[in-house]
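Ticket #4471: structure output looks truncated?

Reporter: J.K.
Steps to reproduce: submitted the chain below (332 residues) through the standard prediction queue, then opened the result file.
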Amino acid sequence: CAGQLPKGSPPLLLGSQSAGRRAILAATGANFETASPDIDEKALGDRSAGAPPEQLVKLLAEAKADALLAKLGAGARVLLTADQVAVYRGVIREKPRDLAEAREFLASYASAPCDLVGALCLHDPGTGRRVVGVQTAHVHFEPAIANVEVDESMLACAGGLMIEHANVAPHIRHIEGGMDCVLGLSTTLLCELLQQLKASEASCSQYGVVLGQTSLRTWAVVGDCLNEAKPAFQVVKRLEEAGRTVFKVSPYDSTGACFKSMEDLSEKVDAVNLIISPKIGLGVLDSMKKLGIRHVFMQPGADAADVVRRAGELGLVVQRGCVLISDMPTLN
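Returned output as attached by the reporter:
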């Protein structure tokens, strides 16, 4: 999608003050406004050596969407948030601390390319539907990049890589991934995500706002999951048969076959099936908010009025019903 966005694209709210992103989005003909998410980026994610940058930028892009939701609430515009980091020889680089570090960063690009890894997040506040994707650009420099003069403006860019700077641009040998990707908003990725969001609209209309989102591939079932006489056991089986990866969470388990709580999960899940007493369910919802899990399917008995109300207060996306009788798309 170099150029225009797909016909019928929704109006957007760009959660970024980046001049480059605004210019790219304007060039697509998008109907958009801007807002600032205002999050503490350094307080989130893993930046240690070997940490996957894709995971970090997705986390930050989603955190910005969540911050806008908390700040602005539901609106008519689809939220578009983004994040990007520089990666050199597998190490994530922050913004330079000073001019000396900016000079050191730029000089290193004479011997190996710098990767710019970014994520885009689209979120529909009206339905809670969300899609996220990652973009990567590889920037190769001429050896003379080692001798460029640096200035204060480069301190605002991850890795000191202000690609459009007059001192930097002449030393670019070639770019893999496109200049829009380098500047933090790949129009190709944006078009793909818009198409995914549109496709999910039909699926959610048919199957519900949680079961219909095929991006929710990893689930936690919270209930008496090991007891074959209990519905929770069958719910686990049903979700697995439909192609979901399922983690069992049961405060009743003493065998070690289940996680005792949401905080004990070995990895983050996309959604939760709640099939437990409302008293315990309220605590599960608070744990979901803390862990950044936004989607919950409430089984009969778990969907007491105070539980549903609490989920709304926390900004969670809720679907009520019974997985054992509800249709859902099968995932490959």
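Triage note (M.O.): checked the attachment and the full token line is present. The chain has a mean pLDDT of 91.
Status: closed, working as intended.
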